[in-house]
Amino acid sequence: MEAEALQKPFDIVIFGASGFTGKYVIREALKFLNVPSSPLKTLALAGRNPDKLAQSLRWASRPSDPPQLPIIKADVADPSSLSSLFRQTKLVLNCVGPFRLYGEPVVAACVDAGADYLDISGEPEFMEKMEIFYHDKASGVGSLVISACGFDSVPAELGVMFNSRQWVGASAPNQMQAYLSLESDKRIVGNFGTFESAVLGVSSAGNLQEMRRMRPRRPRPVIPGPPPSKGSTIEHQKQLGLWALKLPSSDAIVVRRTLASLTEHPHGLPGYNERDDHVEKRKSFWSAVKPAHFGVKIGTKSLFGILKIILTGISIGLFGLTAFGRRLVLKYPEFFTGGMFRKTGPTEEEVNSATFKMWFVAQGYGDVGVASSGSKPDTEIVTRVSGPEIGYITTPIILVQCALTLLGERANLPKGGVYPPGIVFGPTDLQQRLQQNDKELDDCLLSYYLTHLGKTAGILYQSRWHYVVTQISSYFHWHLEKELIYLDSSLSFH
Ligand SMILES: NC(=O)c1ccc[n+]([C@@H]2O[C@H](COP(=O)([O-])OP(=O)(O)OC[C@H]3O[C@@H](n4cnc5c(N)ncnc54)[C@H](OP(=O)(O)O)[C@@H]3O)[C@@H](O)[C@H]2O)c1
């Protein structure tokens, strides 16, 4: 496999590089092209319109002149154009969506060509379909196919693993609820591509259920204690100061797939030519991950914000059900979403001013032995992942860092197969890469915040480059905002 890979002229092809997200992905990839420590030495751009690709490259290179990169025409509707392109590359970064419409021929051609594949899909039906139809072949030919390598769903996957690894000794989580909060002093806007993917997702929700019914059930992880109750539709999360509502994103589904893989392979997935030290690292990483019931909610500071999200959800849900309704909402996305999605996408200013925080509130048992006696969870651990704007900054950063991890650590990863990102990248240095990204990207790191509520309360805050840990001996009932200020102002504390 390595000998073949060496003969390929490109390390990475960005497919769909002319799209709204694609151009941001080019910009991110250029930062690592031909940098001495980077495994990315050769990069090509591909899509159906070479002029648009060249325009995206000019945009992504500003203020410098664009570098000389191969620009290759390839169209999803012409599978031979995909096959000949993918035979020339080690790795394809697929930014062509909606994935349910355009994704399968790309995966099929990658697997045929024996190339590795990452994408930024947030569409569970597409991901599960690829797993069903291409896993065996991809495993055989040595093509690693990993969807959801963007904001969907790497922060959720890393966030769940990070929180679950804080439950040390006899303690164990039972349930983990993520609260996503999007913040900006400008409008928070998504591009049409994401909106179209969401609308089409509503219309084919039944297909996903049908597909699952036809598959053999995968093993479920053993989680101590009873499953959590459903709770109210709108939750007032007082600790975080958020009104919250279930978010029908792909995160919980992707995390569940990773936990199912982990149940099947308790030591994780062996690399095809793994170094001994990595075998140890992988085993010790996964032995510390304790599964929990997981869900995601979107949170806003005001009840009005949640009501706006509900109205948008109802309008997409209702109109998405019929062909006429879909045509209507897809024609006027701004009107039907109260400005949350725009045909022209967000402005650069809007992108640059947005950030996200994702809190992971986990409840479980200080001593897992009491779980079987029917006791209620007695311990809570809260962690946080945060970063810049989700769609066009965080997503390209994550996709490119997944790509660099894959190129740099290929022998430590499975030979091939279709997997969610967590089970493949969990024991790699992806989390560190995202935290350290690069010095210009101080605002682009994912920072982690952790606090325990329990008998021995402790606070651990991971700042940009180092940990600050304080141990406090008495029960610590906290107000979150206050604690953050306290922690932020005590970075020199050890
Ligand atoms: N995971 C996340 O958090 C996240 C974040 C951002 C985006 N996304 C997803 O990424 C996808 C793209 O979003 P976007 O906003 O970038 O959409 P977009 O601006 O519409 O871009 C779509 C891209 O697909 C290309 N394309 C369409 N049909 C094609 C075909 N037949 N052959 C080759 N290329 C074709 C387009 O080429 P042309 O330029 O020639 O039209 C364009 O490059 C969506 O599914 C979205 O949900 C996910």
Automatic annotation (TrEMBL):
GO CC annotation: lipid droplet; mitochondrion; plasma membrane
Gene3D superfamilies in alphabetical order: NAD(P)-binding Rossmann-like Domain
GO biological process, one term: glycolipid biosynthetic process
Source species, domain of life: Eukaryota
One Pfam family recorded for the sequence: Sacchrp_dh_NADP
Keyword Ion transport listed: no
Keyword terms of this UniProt record: Membrane, Transmembrane, Transmembrane helix
InterPro entries attached to this UniProt entry: NAD(P)-bd_dom_sf, Saccharopine_DH-like_oxidrdct, Sacchrp_dh_NADP-bd
SUPFAM superfamilies: NAD(P)-binding Rossmann-fold domains (SSF51735)
Transmembrane segments: 303-324
Statement: the UniProt record of this protein carries the keyword RNA-binding: no
Chain positions covered by the region annotation Disordered: 211-233
Boundaries of every Saccharopine dehydrogenase NADP binding domain copy: 12-139
Family: Belongs to the saccharopine dehydrogenase family.
Name of the protein in question: Saccharopine dehydrogenase NADP binding domain-containing protein
Source organism per UniProt: Aristolochia fimbriata (White veined hardy Dutchman's pipe vine)
The organism's taxonomic lineage, starting at the top: Eukaryota, Viridiplantae, Streptophyta, Embryophyta, Tracheophyta
